[in-house]
From TrEMBL:
Coiled coil spans: none
Organism, as annotated: Actinomyces massiliensis F0489
Keywords: DNA-binding, Transcription, Transcription regulation
Region annotation (Disordered) ranges: 1-28
GO molecular function per UniProt: DNA-binding transcription factor activity; sequence-specific DNA binding
Alphabetical list of PANTHER family matching this protein: BLL1074 PROTEIN, HTH-TYPE TRANSCRIPTIONAL ACTIVATOR RHAS-RELATED
Protein name: DNA-binding helix-turn-helix protein
Biased composition (Basic and acidic residues): 1-18
Cited PROSITE patterns: HTH_ARAC_FAMILY_2 (PS01124)
Length: 296
């Protein structure tokens, strides 16, 4: 979830569009997790969670064989819904993208809640991973759930999804071994466009509009904006802005723009501010991005 292909949901284009954490309201798995484990960075502490998502800030042709033998391919299913398959042969850093993913792992489907922090992922097995990525603000239409409760968590999908999502999960499991997984999943993908305010608020985030001005433009109070954001995105507007800005800065630096200039273009107060945000959201410093071989 460019080497982490920022999927078709590129946060820095106009279509771009990867707050305090809410209490953990979810049940803990009763059995030890048996899927690929990786560390989820949270300030000074880390939690063990699972999955390998391969996304990057640069659009890529499908499928693409990466420099280290990794593979990533994706296809659009519906509005804001992307089917992806990846194979990761070495540990990688997965930037925050604000998306929700449903991921096949063994004989179960995992739900990766809205991702607002970077993830350090291990290698996948030889079969790789298959999943559906739901763009920021679009998940609730296909799989209604309490998004803030699953933010930055990966759990068994059956623990949080309603019965209406069972056909999609079953189709995703069947698609794992299919040569054309999209064929069985496309009919289940929602063709409904997101609520009109969703793409509009994403455009405000891309433009760097403040929460106050964005709320005013929507004829809402800031409290109303936050309520809508939590229900449809799983996090607040300020978090969306931070994710968009960090991914833009990442693209700039990966493309050869000096960090100081990238900080100015992306809207950071200075390079120190840029470094702090990239470390939190991207999992790499500007210097590490410059020397990342995946940018070649």
């Amino acid at each position: 979830m460019e080497t982490r292909s920022l999927h078709s949901t590129d946060l820095s284009k106009t279509e771009e569009i990867k707050p305090p954490a809410s209490p953990d309201l979810l049940k803990k798995p009763k059995k030890p997790w048996r899927y690929q484990l990786f560390h989820f960075h949270r300030s000074a502490e880390s939690r063990l969670i699972s999955s390998v998502l391969d996304r990057s800030p640069h659009p890529r042709k499908q499928p693409q064989q990466c420099h280290d033998g990794a593979m990533y391919a994706e296809v659009q299913l519906g509005m804001g819904q992307t089917l992806w398959r990846s194979r990761q042969v070495a540990p990688s850093t997965i930037p925050a993208d604000g998306c929700v993913d449903l991921i096949v792992s063994g004989d179960r489907v995992l739900l990766c809640g809205p991702q607002t922090r970077w993830i350090a992922a291990g290698a996948s097995d030889s079969t790789g991973l298959l999943g559906i990525r739901l763009a920021p603000g679009t998940a609730s239409a296909l799989v209604p759930m309490d998004l803030p409760a699953v933010r930055d968590q990966i759990i068994d999908a059956q623990d949080v999804l309603s019965r209406s999502a069972i056909p999609l999960c079953e189709a995703l499991l069947r698609a794992r071994d299919s040569s054309d997984p999209a064929a069985g999943l496309s009919p289940l993908a929602s063709s409904d466009a997101p609520e009109p305010w969703v793409p509009q608020i994403r455009q405000y985030a891309v433009a760097g509009t403040s929460a106050r001005k964005a709320a005013t433009a929507m004829s809402w109070s800031e409290r109303t904006l936050r309520r809508h954001m939590l229900a449809s995105f799983g996090y607040g507007y300020t978090t969306l802005r931070r994710i968009v800005r960090a991914r833009r800065a990442r693209r700039l630096i990966a493309g050869g723009t000096p960090p100081t200039q990238a900080a100015t273009i992306a809207g950071y107060s200075d390079q120190a501010h840029l470094t702090r945000e990239l470390t939190t959201l991207i999992g790499m410093t500007p210097g590490e991005l410059i020397h990342d071989p995946r940018n070649g």
